[in-house]
Predict the structure.
Amino acid sequence: MDRMLIQSGYQLNGHVKTSGAKNAALPILFSTLLAEGEHTFTNVPLLKDIESTADLLASLGCTTKRDGNTFSVHVEKLTSFEASYELVRKMRASILCLGPILAKYGEAVVSLPGGCAIGTRPIDLHLDAMKSLGATIELKEGYVLAKAKKLKGATVLFEKTTVGGTENLMMAATLAEGTTIIENAAKEPEIVNLGNYLNKMGAKVSGHGTGVIRIEGVEKLHAATHEIMADRIEAGTLLIAGAITGGDVTVENCRPEDLEALILKMKDCGFKIDTTATTMRVHPLAKWDATDISTAPHPLFPTDLQAQFMALMTVANGTSIISETVFENRFMHVTELMRLGADITPKTQVAVVRGRPGGLTAAPVMATDLRASASLVLAGLVAKGETLVNRIYHLDRGYENLEGKLGQLGAKVTRV
Ligand code: UD1
């Protein structure tokens, strides 16, 4: 199993490009199930989660093809309406095939995703949303059986903001009869990217990116082509990598407007950050101040950058209070950061980080989930000595060639 060895003491400097967004690519790849034909996407990152999606699409009867970062899905009438446990357990986002299959074929069978390292992460809101459009839902032997001759548009108020739930409902509603209004919809940029692709396929979606999304059902959709948006979480991770080493790093091919909450917090710490429409640059700073963050749905501070920001706070001047309000168990990186010498008191959904500038020392650590892995790599860049991060396969689920990109900026990172 791959591990990553990080040698500290190298300041990161230079320019680096962001890849396409995993969290935009996944729902968009599942949305292809809504329309027969050849769908072609550019800027699709090379990641394990994309491979898992391709496997699931193939198991349903689609053909996928990759040529570098161009990825196409050829969809004919599906040969199966079932997403098996074997495939779904590898990637929770597989639940996103439920809405499209149900809407187009009137029935779908999807395995329950089961446990997850960052909390229970139920799918009740996805299922309630399908019921609101008239589907019957049965749970049997670990599977969700969903049926509806024809989905019917409705007003659906999500009692909790859910990115995946909003996406599943948007996709299902495109082929429903009548109009669907989603209230308290998630506003993440990936939702906008999905809505734009649905519209290219002939759907009538409006308001995506706001809290109220309106979808007028249509009879049929058609395949189209689309560019996957830049990965804002990867961009943020690379910016923090520059900052934590006191370096001068410009992240290119990104959209700083999607990362306002992170940029504001980094400025609070004293970092000078310049932005253009597609780049952000962090200027060198030897010492920075601690600041508090609280994760919340977009446009507030993203939970997917909480672990990486915590790494930055472990070597800040002062104390930072980090609150995680989106997931109930997303502090697994805390004990690993403590192995590197970080001074952190974790409580339920809140962690108190007492910064120790220059105070981390290398140790073997273990990655527990995707973003936790990234935070350990960042801490490893400044923990004196050689840090060995075990179970790096988590990183491969969501970061395209992270060691190559960090290496290009001057870090000494190797896969062993
Ligand atoms: C997506 C992202 C993930 C990110 C998260 C929050 C993808 C593939 N993944 O995950 O990287 O961390 O948004 O920004 O895009 N919930 C329920 N019932 C449900 C659904 C969700 O209680 O049916 C809860 C979850 O447990 C969590 C919260 O709602 O506490 C938000 O989850 P959600 O926004 O749905 O996250 P995902 O779509 O799974």
